[in-house]
Amino acid sequence: MAGKYRLVDIPISNCLNSGLNQIFVLTQFNTASLHRHIQGSYKFDHFGRGFVDILSAEQTDGGGNWYQGTADAVRQNLHHLNPRDEDLILILSGDQLYQMDLKAIVAQHRATKADLTIAAKAMPTNEVAGLGLMRINDDLTITEFVEKPSDPAIIEGLAISPDVAPSTDRKYVLANMGIYVFSGRSLRMALDCEHTDFGKEIIPQMLGRIKQCCYVFNGYWEDIGTVRSFFDANLQLTDSVPPFNFFDVDNPVYTRARYLPASKLNNGTFDRSIVADGCIISGAHLQRTVIGIRSIIRDGSRLENVVMMGADSFVPDNEQPKDKPLIGVGRNCHISNAIIDKNARIGDNVKLSPEGKPDMFQQGDVIVRDGVLIVLKNGVVPSGTVI
């Protein structure tokens, strides 16, 4: 994210900035890189009682114990948490971009004597596809919860009063942000079943059995669970005043200290671009781009609307394979509306664009998803390729 962060840095930083420093990160498969990042980023002194512990799904390749959903992930690790009845457990998602004082939702949870508090954001009815929606009373108790409705009549029926909506000329509904505060007792009760998902199953089932309240969040929040949302959220950071502020000194976003040199920008033109540390960009033209750590872009190349993830390490040219292009982007390339994943090798005179390509298109290490062209991690695009 933003050239140098991992998405997991966002919820962890929100916790630390809110004074919450006992954090468990629940991970599933293909997470070796994520584990290295967390272990290298979050180290606490021995006297503060703070930690960021990784709890991986405990299974073998032949087993069936992968996490089946958020609730199932928490259930499988409940013995590690071992919560007392009066303990509070805050559950966050790992793929969202937002800044929140988490002390506020905890304080409201205590003040309302809720068993479960759900963070929600007022969103226009035409922007809530794939989100759970709720209806609340004036005292913030939740009276109705519908997971991912697709029927416009149901969505319209959950619209909030124009008096409290952000805008009077559009209809808004309260959308579930996937942020929950449980008491220890209510969490054990909620997970005493075989259901695997909080929004789809557990929350509707627990309505009327425990006191559920809504915490209304008014700040910027973006669910980055799709290729398109990840792509758009990154490019929005290149705006003069982006919706998410990485420059907020009171709410820093923490990440791994890599001790990389400053980037080299030789000639070229740069418009609305973010360039992370350790990059070498020579004679290139960048327009609305996010360039990740250790990226190399060579003479004459033009990148427009591109998120480039960078590289895991510096590899001298004379130590790279002779049968592949060098890591980074070669000379005289034109790439637009694309995500270039880590360690990609793109040769000279390459043209890449998703324009006119169907979703699920694939050619070699290049695919198209959600209208965005993607060069896969460790992918190779030979010189002269035109897609």
Summarize this entry quickly.
The protein is α/β, with parallel strands linked by helices and 387 residues long. It contains 9 helices and 24 strands.
Overall description:
- The chain is an alpha/beta fold and about 375 residues long.
- It folds into two domains: about 10-235, Spore Coat Polysaccharide Biosynthesis Protein SpsA, Chain A (Alpha-Beta Complex); about 265-380, UDP N-Acetylglucosamine Acyltransferase, domain 1 (3 Solenoid), CATH 2.160.10.
- The chain is built from nine helices and 24 strands.
- The protein has helices at about 10-15, 30-40, 70-75, 80, 100-110, 150-155, 185-190, 200-205, 225-235; strands at about 20-25, 50-55, 90, 95-100, 115-125, 135, 140-145, 170-185, 210-215, 220-225, 265, 270-275, 280, 285-290, 295, 300-310, 330, 335-340, 345, 350, 360-365, 365-370, 370-375, 380.
- Strand 21 (about 360-365) and strand 22 (about 365-370) form a beta hairpin.
Salient structural properties:
single chain; 387 residues; alpha/beta; Spore Coat Polysaccharide Biosynthesis Protein SpsA, Chain A; UDP N-Acetylglucosamine Acyltransferase, domain 1; 2 domains; eight-stranded mixed sheet; six-stranded mixed sheet; 29% strand
CATH superfamily of the largest domain: Spore Coat Polysaccharide Biosynthesis Protein SpsA, Chain A
What is the name of the CATH class of the largest domain? Alpha Beta
Give me the CATH fold name of the largest domain.
Answer: Spore Coat Polysaccharide Biosynthesis Protein SpsA, Chain A
Counting structural domains, the number is 2
Low-confidence stretches: none
The rough form would be described as: globular
Instruction: Find the count of extended strands (DSSP E, 2+ residues).
Output: 24
Overall mean confidence score, pLDDT: 93
Percent of residues in beta strands? 25-35%
Helix/strand class: alpha/beta
User: Can you tell me the CATH architecture of the largest domain?
Assistant: Alpha-Beta Complex
Helical proportion, percent range? 10-25%
The biggest sheet amounts to: 8 strands, mixed
| CA-based gyration radius | 23 Å
Helix segment tally: 9
